[in-house]
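for the record, two folds in this file. i put them one after another cuz i was lazy. first one right below, seq on top, structure tokens after. the second one comes after a little note so u can tell where it starts
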Amino acid sequence: MKKSLFETLKQAYANKELWVEVKSELKAAGRSTDVSDFLDPFKNLIIGILSQNTSDENSVKAWVGLTEKFEITPQSLAKADVRKIRNSIRAGGLYNLKSKRIKELSKAVLERFGGDLTELTKLSKEEAREKLVDLPGIGPKTADVWLLYCASRYVMAVDTNVDRVAKRLGMVSSSASYEKVREGLEKAFAPKERREGHEFLVRLGRDYCKPRKPLCKSCPVRELCQKRI
């Protein structure tokens, strides 16, 4: 029987740490390799903003810079001087825009949820997503990452790596929107496979299916790919 994409990826990455890049980047930045901050509902959104349109390495540097200057709570960041936020995250790029978004998001979380996002974890994924994307600086990808990791919902979050891999594998059209890519992946992965499947696809995009000069000859899903070289 032909293996599913999930089974193929699981075998390819057996016994490998899917968080290895984030952990190594935190360690290089002089921080603990603990990634539990990613599971905190508010911190996850801040990390999401910092990760927009930049590399993982730069977003980690920005996160470290922010945590060195501020307590990462909506109360602290809502009253912070936006210039100080901007200076603390400068290493991550787009710091003018992101500093404003961080402050606006913090204010909104205080005003709409009393500073506590726990109530969103109790809503349906559709209701929670709607409230998340209505927050300043939060788009569909950041919302879906939050749902996946903070609310344990069976969604497929689509970052740039996942989008590229899905399109090259021919799972969706090359012009598919975010929602169409997510829908296509959710058909391909069973609900309980989606968190690990997301992490596998992120790793595949970083390790093999690179934006330029993909390593097609050594890719573990080469035979499934329509774009292989």
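(here's the note) second protein begins now
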Amino acid sequence: MQLTLEEAATKLGKSVRQIRYLLKEGRLSAKKVAGRWFVEMEDAPKTPSQQGVEQRKQERLRAVVEDALELKPSETQRYSVMDLKAFQLGLPLYHKASELLGEQHSATLALRQALEHLARGCHRHDKDEKAAAYRTARDEASLAVCELLITGGAASALVAPIEQELMAALAGLLRRLDRIGKREGHRETGRFRR
């Protein structure tokens, strides 16, 4: 967007003289068209309020993307552990570990424990208890990775999906709980009003 010196000054909350100085210093760029200078606003520095708006937009976009990446719950159930992306990713990994290593192998048992803690967390109503269960699920998934690496062989192919997908889904659950906690804290202090 190209603006006249006066328009740029108004938009940036500066005087025309300050705009000329920014141009001279090279912090803004401008073109002369038909004897008149036009400032390139794409290059303009953002004011603190514009930076705050931009940051809030990015945070909202990040939240929307994270929610969009969640696998959708089935329409027949109101709420189930199967609605959790982490559970949906972890269950086939557990079955694969069972098939490759047997049900009593420590990596298989750790994945089973991770799934059990996800189920417990899913059905907890207290946010802190829910977060504790999800953290324990994450710890169990980490132990499964360690056991798979120690065991080696074909089962080590499960390490990447656990670390890259399952752990990311578990981190997403914990981030969501953290955001909920922050919103509740803001409501209690009166900073959020509906």
